């Protein structure tokens, strides 16, 4: 069975293993104060052109999101998200467990819109309702779509006007940066967001996410709140090494590109068969709508998820490529898509 | 500078790196449902002689402690600990952040006593005070001491009588199991505690702790609460592999033994010099009381911490060996201790 | 200005003041263990035909809701509500502040439907999402509608099948019990709900709500959780006296009836003018849709709220009668409604 | 049985009942925005000589404490208290339930000392421990003692230097202000504390505490956090009226004086008998040490609490007078104390 289920099915990029091996018995201090974390911080600040940013490392996305949000909000404040947002759909109420409401808004393409943010600000009536204070977005979104530079600028603008923090979940940032048509760079993101994280778990690391905090207000005592949430990693070296590997020689960008290239091959195969898509995605996640019989047949050899019934004979699926997807697997998958015909 | 500061200064035991390398591109499902976690679970259940235990993997000790405690307690319930307990001293209020009070009791040797537990139970007066429901202990303790089998049985007995959960933080369990005079086995611990964790971070793993839950009440929906706290690791394979490495061929016990052997060499050197100790520790952490001048001299070549003033000319220090401590470093350290004389 | 804005604009029913005066210097123990609370408990248990129910007194509805919900749920569990539910719309994230998500569902009439509850149960996928455990409903609802006996039985049935608690917010229960066409009695409610509260603040008390808990699971240590949330009232006597007043001589039912009668007079006046309604309400809250000009004119003499734009020339308003509404004020209001004509 | 158990055994001062009666059917808006709350606010600001202070009303002390503390602290911050502090001993972990640790310090007389505060500030080591940010004190303390003006100035000074908020729990403030030898005025307290509350529940009100917030940082969005904690009272008029009654014609000061006068009579009787005291209290709470036999005899006619064993034949008790204590009861009590002789 070949997996197109997600982008965290394999270990890590071999380059990271090399560094782990080479440095294994070097002694280091704990809790992300080590030489590896510091080197990774410098690489990330450089890539973001953000010399004053604080960079912290986490083991996972949910832990990252809950820590950033808990650190940013006063008790009565809420975070705004689309209904598809990971904090709204897949974190078992992690944000609420820190005491805060996630206020959700429908979105066709998984992207938050400036007018929704502005409305939320203007409709704050009184002390009887939660006070919006942060906007949560994902890049790429949970539907594989991406914010353009103009879109992110517009969001940042409205957030600034409303006094809201703008926070980007970059679990799949490598694939967004490499997306077809993307015009948004890491320095743009660092400039426009108050905080964001550069995903490692889904982008080639054994484990790890790197939070970049540019807003000085959010920087204050952040390590206290990490520790309180069990997020300050004793053996931070492990996380530092991941990001040294990913940010030396532009590896992060290269592996994103490789994954997107293969997703585009699959997209092309689907288009060639005349299949529609739930959403037009330029990234490593594709949501083609296929005949049920074709899906069943493909599933004999390939695993993928996201099955959503469209009509009696069709369903949408979620196909995900990654840094580790083998080109021959993609080719075989495309060939099978092209060969299969609805019964 | 040679570090005797703590037991998490290096990467991991080379055996773990080998498995990481060998399995790196095997595909696996996420969130600790993979083949590696399952294999590690079986090894741990076997080592604990606890076939019905649930085993879950975490990236760090604070995250483990807060998740187990949050899962176990109703809102008004509290956890009992010695004043030295890690949850009381070094977790930035992580337990309180989940809503629960940590009630602390003085202890000369870092160990919780049955009569303290019973008193806490009997002194529950009313709804105006928190209700004790769990006893937190560490093995080995934060002072390097260990519970004997008889002591743990007595604690388990009183906990059962009071309706309290008994939870053991095994951050340094490898060193406790290998301690001089230890008579407590993993199966004993699994039998006597409702839940405990087998520490990896300080005992040879790149990262990871393994929680063993034997009480069915605590098993219920535990993965939900892990996920909610950001503790369910997407790439669980990394954690599974650590514990495969540690529990194949009794590695966990061997590295514990090696560290304790070296701590004993250091202890002997100190005894030979006539130095006293804050506490008599049979494990990898030693707290000798040395002349200030000797400490200063040693610190030119070795790093260690825990400096606590005893009198005008003496301080206690904390010296920690680990799975990775090189025997030649220990020998050099002992030689220097023996050679140095108070000015 | 005569207020039809809400049902808590006045002090309390004169009978309650009489008891306050008569008992003022009687000494009593604190924290709701006094003779007045005990007498009120007995009256309420009798009215509910629930001799084994626990009855507790609170000062307000939000405090009641957050305490009951916090007491009932484990950390990862959520409460289900309509989008209109008070816990979703008007409590500043009070439930989330206790760590729990409020999962909301659209509803035309403000009532929760059994199929929504069943769907929520069946769609529980995994530990990545919150686990529904409680259904929150209001009687009467925030739109003034009421559950019939058959509807509440159906909800209770599905909750039992799903293992969910059914909790009713009875802030306006007096008006629901007196509603036109109501067939649901206090004993029915006590039999069908795991917990509910009998509203006093909006139904003639100076302050106070009375929680009735029939499910023994929810009874356990409830006073601890009240105290923890600041809800155990030192001078419980004040609350006990309110409910003695309300439940002696069926006062609670009489004042509900009086308020509904007057709401019906206003409803009739609106119907006579051909005005539509946002929802067909048989209780003390009416939501007529009026010409904007009429609204403006009425507001010169009467205050009321809930202005919701319907079209260019019409808005819905919320008109509320209460135990204290003077009949002459209602008559004047009706006369003005009938007299006013759209410009 | 005559109660000297506490200061909340009776209803309220008759003057308050008069105002309740006189205003009962006046209509008022809800949630403490009414004319009564506003008038009470003005009276309190005037008494405190604090025209810019925010004044909010609560139904009870625990609810007040948890709301003020939750509003003031970021997640990793802690509040400092003596071991006797009400938040440490009698609130069922209410502060921890909002996520914050209460750090306690021993105190012979129940009073916090400036050097303890300074030490706590200076010993903040790292992100591994909670960060102190607020000092909680009670006036009068739980042992009946009071801070002098010089002592409060010293505490305020050290808090300012450390960047800590100083918060005073004034549950028994009327009795502190009337204490023998007191030199601290309401304007002093308003000037020196960032926030404090003027207790009503124990000082003559049916229910109610009035928070005075002078620090603008703590004023921000405070009503949101009140509402979130269920502390914004729908029928705020009830609370406003209490404080109109208490602060018109200096009633608050007069009833404090009356209670202290009677406590002094009891103290004199004890001294005359040669009884010692646990602590020298100048307020309405006295802690005499009496022969066990005398205590048993007194308890046939009087109720009082706080029984603490001193030696085989003696215990300390807690005797409390209040605004409502009848002078003839005090005289009878004193006569009985004087008449009784140890068997």
Give structural notes.
4 copies of one chain form a homotetramer. Helix content of chain A is 42%, strand content 19%. Chain A is α/β, with parallel strands linked by helices and 343 residues long. In chain A, β13 (305-311) and β14 (314-320) form a beta hairpin. The longest helix of chain A is centred in the C-terminal third of the chain and has 22 residues, at 251-272. Chain A is globular, with a radius of gyration of 20 Å. The two termini of chain A are 23 Å apart.
The pLDDT mean of chain A sits at 97
Oligomerization state: homotetramer
Q: Give the largest interface pair and sizes.
A: A-B, 54 and 54 residues
Q: What's the total helix number of chain A?
A: 15
Order of helices and strands of chain A: EHHEHEHHEHEHEHHEEHHHHEEEHEEEH
Please give the number of β-strands of chain A: 14
- Amount of helix of chain A: 40-55%
Walk across the major sheet of chain A and give the strand order. 2-8-7-6-5-3-4
Shape label of chain A: globular
| Rg estimate of chain A, integer Å | 20 Å
Uncertain parts of chain A: none
Strand content of chain A: 15-25%
User: End-to-end distance of chain A, in Å?
Assistant: 23 Å
Judged by helices, strands and strand pairing, the structural class of chain A is alpha/beta
Q: Main β-sheet of chain A, in a few words?
A: 7 strands, mixed
């Amino acid at each position: 069975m070949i997996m197109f289920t997600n982008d965290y099915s394999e270990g890590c990029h071999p380059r990271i293993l090399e560094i782990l091996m080479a440095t294994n018995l070097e002694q280091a201090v704990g809790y992300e104060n080590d030489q590896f974390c510091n080197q990774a911080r410098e690489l990330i600040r450089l890539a973001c052109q953000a010399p004053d940013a604080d960079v912290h490392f986490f083991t996972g996305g949910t832990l990252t999101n809950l820590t950033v949000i808990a650190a940013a909000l006063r008790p009565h404040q809420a975070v705004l998200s689309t209904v598809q947002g990971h904090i709204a759909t897949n974190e078992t109420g992690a944000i609420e467990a820190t005491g805060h409401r996630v206020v959700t808004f429908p979105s066709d393409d998984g992207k938050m819109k400036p007018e929704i943010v502005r409305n939320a600000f203007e409709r704050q009536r009184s002390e009887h309702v939660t006070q919006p204070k942060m906007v949560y977005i994902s890049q790429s979104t949970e539907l594989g779509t991406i914010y353009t530079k103009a879109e992110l600028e517009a969001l940042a603008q409205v957030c600034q006007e409303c006094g809201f923090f703008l926070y980007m979940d970059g679990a799949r940032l490598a694939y967004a940066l490499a997306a077809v048509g993307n015009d948004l760079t890491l320095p743009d993101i660092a400039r426009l967001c108050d905080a964001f994280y550069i995903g490692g778990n889904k982008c080639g690391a054994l484990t790890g996410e790197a939070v970049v905090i540019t807003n000085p207000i959010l920087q204050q005592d952040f390590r206290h709140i990490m520790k309180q949430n069990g997020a300050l990693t004793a053996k931070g070296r492990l996380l530092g090494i991941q990001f040294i590997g990913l940010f030396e020689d532009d590896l992060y960008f290269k592996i994103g590109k490789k994954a997107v290239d293969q997703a585009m091959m699959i997209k092309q195969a689907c288009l060639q068969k005349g299949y529609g898509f739930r959403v037009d995605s330029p990234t490593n996640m594709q949501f083609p709508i296929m005949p049920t019989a074709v899906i069943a047949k493909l599933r004999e050899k390939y695993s993928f998820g996201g099955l959503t019934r469209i009509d009696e004979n069709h369903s949408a699926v979620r196909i995900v490529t990654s840094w580790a997807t083998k080109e021959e697997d993609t080719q075989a998958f495309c060939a099978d898509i092209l060969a299969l015909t609805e019964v």
